Amino acid sequence: MFDAVRNNKRIAQIILALLIVPFAFFGLDSYFTDGPGGNEVATVGGSKISTNEFDQALRDQQDRLRQSMGGQVDRAMLESEAMRRSVVENLVNQRLLAMHAADSSLVVTQQQLQQVIATVPAFQEDGRFSLERYEAAVRAQGMTPAMFEARLGQDLRVQQIALAVGQSAFTAQASVQRFLEAQLEERKVSELKFLPDAFLAQVELPDDAAKKYYDANPERFERPARLRAEYLVFDENALLNQVSVSDDEIRKFYEANTARFGQPEERNARHILIEAAADAPAEEVAKASEKAAALLAQVRANPERFAELAKAESQDPGSAAGGGELGFFGRGAMVKPFEDAVFSLEKGQISDVVRSDFGFHIIQVVDIKPAKARPFEEVRDEIAEELKRQAASRRFAEQAEHFANLVYEQADSLQPAAEALGLEIRQTDWISREEGSIGGFKNEKLLNGLFSDEAVKNGRNVEAVEVSRGTLVSARVRDFEAAQRLPFDEVKASIEKQLRAEEASKLAVTRGEAALAALAKGEQASGAWSEARVVRRGSPELAPAAIDAVFGAAESKLPAYAGVAMPEGGYSVFRIESVTRPELAKDDPRLQAVSQQYQRLIAERDFNAFLASLRERYEVEINEAALRTAQQP
Q: What is the mean pLDDT of residues 393-407?
């Protein structure tokens, strides 16, 4: 079984992808120890998942999301209930698998552990296992090799379970072929539409229809609680206008960073390479060196033949065809021995034989672009802006805590914080908790704070909330309106419009169904058919209901007809004029792709079912209150 895990990683990876937190680096040893009483977000078979463990897993998942999205992540999403619930569900799944592995007495030998560790790229150097790199990587995770190997053993035992479930997924080739043939089937159809708008004029509503609908559906006319707020945004931009830099500071920065504000020296060189790897046998190195020396003698004797010899003899496939020319480059672009040689030569000069990790080079400098600096006046504004941002950033770091303390300690007004830090108090229009945003930031924590009793009833500032990296916002309620039912007169017109549309759609459906019945009898239907088009199952140009109707129609007699009430209202009749089915060869590559996708779906379904069975075996309880109050970043 272990060899299967090691040699058939695809299935295990598919299933283990459902488990977000890797076992090996977060450990399973705590899975079988209880934390302090009452301090857990869940229990699995009596084993507790502590709030500390949950907080760590949540932070790790948030960090992974930030890294995968380049740091551009809505903080509201990172702090959302959905995110916290997803993390705790994954912790529960991990605990279930770990407990099952322990109860099943699954074994991983020391030899098997060593085989896996030796194949990890992070533990290798020059393609070979490096004990030094292995120990350093493990220490960086705060573990000893023994601790890591114990946890890795647990991870591998869980993989054995995952693979056993995944390998049970089976797809019959005949089923896959029938499925793909059905997906590729094409039908040529034209459409006859019965749109609601065409029947609006025929709709007559009773005088009391709108009022009856209003009374029967009170929840539809509830306006949620809403408020208007005033707020402060504290970030680097808010401080830019409060800092200034002198001409002397700008000049000093320019003089200290001349290389940055100029074009560094660049050189165009060409070379002849005779390959000899760094770890090549001595005999091979000697042979390459001898050949390079002979070529050097030829180019020294006749420099004009350099390009000719490079085309004929150089073993650099990227430059040989161009006479060995590499184009202009600066320092840092080439390996150091090559770079040192190029930048030590004069224009037109030919080097001695230069050894690098790639082999032996003969180099000639073709041209030199000397370094040149951009004038001070050209970059003055650029430097001034950078220095101001640096100063604003330092001031923000120094005053962020001061801002948070001011809005908290003087909670009856934002004015003291605004005056102390030179900020502008801004105002929102009416906003709700579900759809509101403050200064363009839709932040769950900030909105929850605004709609809390502390802010609404007691009129206190909401504590400073980091709505994005380096941006703090505090707000307070200016006006508040509790949830209320909208007056009938205010919504009467919209209700009547809705009822008319619904009645018109019913008339369109009735007319469409009548047309379909007439066509089925061989009679004609009035209306304009669309131009015929070819569609497949899953075609985006037709609604799913329409696709089901078109491909569900019998094809024994063509043209065939099908009809369906459309999701947007009205009715469509489809005339199927022809049916084309593909003929798939048994070795069609599409069959293999579909089979793999289908097997993956079955494996995921079976794995979820397996987890559900483990939940029945090991009783799972999630502490909803602790989950809601768990520490947030």
A: 88
**Which string of DSSP letters, residue by residue, matches 80-139?**
SHHHHHHHHHHHHHHHHHHHHHHHTT----HHHHHHHHHT-GGGEETTEE-HHHHHHHHH
Which residues lie below 8 Å from residue 553, measured CB to CB, with a gap of 6+? 560, 561, 562, 574, 576
Which residues have a Cβ under 8 Å from the Cβ of 592 and sit 6 or more positions away?
A: none
Distance CA 630, CA 610 (A): 29
Judge residue 468's burial from the number of C-beta atoms within 10 Å of its C-beta, 0-12 exposed, 13-18 middle, 19 or more buried.
middle
Residues 6+ apart with CB under 8 A from 296: 350, 352, 353, 362
How much is the pTM? Answer: 0.46
H-run or E-run covering 324: none
Predicted confidence band of residue 633 (pLDDT cuts 50, 70, 90): very low
Helix, strand, coil fractions of the chain, as percent rounded to 5: 50, 20, 30
Q: 21 by DSSP, 3-state: which?
A: coil
Q: What is the DSSP string of 22-80?
A: -HHHH-SGGGGS--STT-EEEEETTEEEEHHHHHHHHHHHHHHHHHHTTT---HHHHTS
CA diameter of the chain: 108
Tokens 């469509």 belong to residue: 572
- Locate 582 and state its tokens: 């593909």
Task: Using the predicted structure, report yes or no on whether residue 625 has a pLDDT greater than 90.
Answer: no
In the numeric block, which tokens belong to residue 425? 């108090």
Q: What is the mean predicted confidence (pLDDT) over 408-422?
A: 93
Which tens digit of pLDDT belongs to each residue from 263-314? 788 899 999 999 998 888 899 999 999 999 999 999 999 999 999 999 999 9
Distance CA 62, CA 66 (A): 6
- How big is the CA angle at 395 (ends 393 and 398), to the nearest 5 degrees? 110
Q: Name 289's Cβ contacts closer than 8 Å, sequence gap at least 6.
A: 274, 276, 353, 355, 360
In sequence order, the 6+-apart residues with CB closer than 8 A to the CB of 585 are none
Coil, strand or helix: which one is 268? strand
Task: Give CA separation, 127 vs 121, 130, 134, 245, 471, in Å.
Answer: 8, 9, 13, 53, 45
Q: What's the DSSP call for residue 487?
A: P
Report the C-alpha gap between 273 and 317 in whole angstroms. Answer: 10
Residues 195 and 15: their CA atoms lie apart, in Å, by 47
Whether residue 14 contacts residue 604, with contact meaning beta carbons closer than 8 Å, is answered with yes
